Structures are given as C-alpha cells and as structure tokens.
Amino acid sequence: MRSVEEILSSIEDLSREEFARLREWFYERDWERWEREITEDSQKEF
C-alpha cells in the first residue's frame, strides 16, 4: 500500500488533464458519500 506522501507526490506529477480527471473523480465520490450519509441520517429515528 502506498503512503499518503507517495500518493501526493504522484498527484503533483499529473498532467493538467489527468489532474482535472482526478478532481472530477473526487467530486463524484464526495457527492456519493454525502448523499449516502444524508439518506442514512434521514432513515434514523431521533
């Protein structure tokens, strides 16, 4: 498994197009997690 430092270094080496693709991937994953959390929270009884 790669360390965070190695991953960050690899990100720094990405081309502009690759970086944009990675950024979009992160946005999509973040949205999916947020949506899942909202759905789960709305199903909880308080």
The CA-CA distance between the termini, in Å, is 40 Å
Task: Describe the sheet with the most strands.
Answer: none
Shape: elongated
Order of helices and strands: HH
Rounded radius of gyration (Å): 16 Å
Enumerate how many helices there are, as a single number.
2
Which range does the strand content fall in?
A: under 5%
Structural class: mainly alpha
Overview of this structure, please?
It is a single chain. The chain is mostly helical and 46 residues long. It has a domain at 16-46. 78% of the residues lie in helices and 0% in strands. The termini are far apart.
In short:
This protein is mostly helical and 46 residues long. The protein contains two helices and no strands.
Based on the model shown, name its key terms:
46 residues; mainly alpha; 2 helices; elongated
List the helices and strands and how they pair.
Layout: H1 4-12, H2 16-42
